[in-house]
Each structure stands twice: as structure tokens, then as C-alpha cells.
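Entry 0007
Protein: 2-amino-4-hydroxy-6-hydroxymethyldihydropteridine pyrophosphokinase
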Amino acid sequence: MITAYIALGSNLNTPIEQLNNALKAIENLPQTQLLSVSAFYQSKPLGPQDQPDYVNAVAKIETVLAPLSLLDELQRIENDQGRVRLRRWGERTLDLDILLYGNDIIQHERLTIPHYDMHNRAFVIVPLMDISPDLILPNGKHLAELAKHLGSHSMKKI
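Output (C-alpha cells):
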């Protein structure tokens, strides 16, 4: 089994409920076990500011699903929960991103692991610190060091 980390985000249609439903769906993925989930955090949107605040979290799983199969399953969950992509970094019912997949580094047209910009995103790093504060990324960087470089953040635990 491979340990993977999944970022969850929503800012439409009762976001907390969306994340809870997504976690239930992740728990039901074949040959996958949900190990832990961070606190839920409210954060400002990364993109256009004319949209509601987000609710974000990170889940730690173990799976035997290959990275692209896991991506397919996560996209199915997004679609099942009514995901519509209106604009880049825009509002969404549900966003599920694979942050890490073991110590793999993957460059594929559909998938980049580690997630291409996770190191700059407090809404990823802070929840990840909740569940794996001693994590070392595939590039050898310690998660705690990344968190220090983010400085203070304006996210609120929900």
C-alpha cells in the first residue's frame, strides 16, 4: 500500500457537507483506507476574490490504486458531487487534488506529483501539518520548514 495525501476544497453548495461527503466517498474507494483527516479550515480564494471563502482540508490515505487510477476515482467523486469548472481558480462544489503519492515524483500530462504549487499554499500546508507534521517531501524538504516560510496565515479552523 502507498500513502497518499489528498487536498479537499469547496466553496459552493454547503462546503462542509461537500467535504464530508467526499471523505465518505474516499473511504469507499476500492483497496483504499482513510487514515486521518485534518481540521477543516476557512480560507480566502486563491483566484478571483468575487467568490465565497473556501473550506479546505487534507486527508491521508493508504491505497493500492495507481496514481492515474486514484486521479480517475477522485475526479469521479468530484463529478458525482456536481463539480462544474466555470473558470480557472473559480468557485467549485468540490476540488480534490493528489498532493503526494508515496515518495513518487510524477510528471504526466494529467498529473503532477508532488502537486505543482503546494509549497506556496497555506490552505494545503497548514492542514497537512495537522496530520503529518514530520513529513519529508520527495525533494527532501521538511514540511515544517515549508510551514515556517509561509509565515502567518488568515485561515480559521472550523
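Curator remark: Residues 70 and 98 are 8 Å apart (CA to CA). The mean pLDDT is 93.
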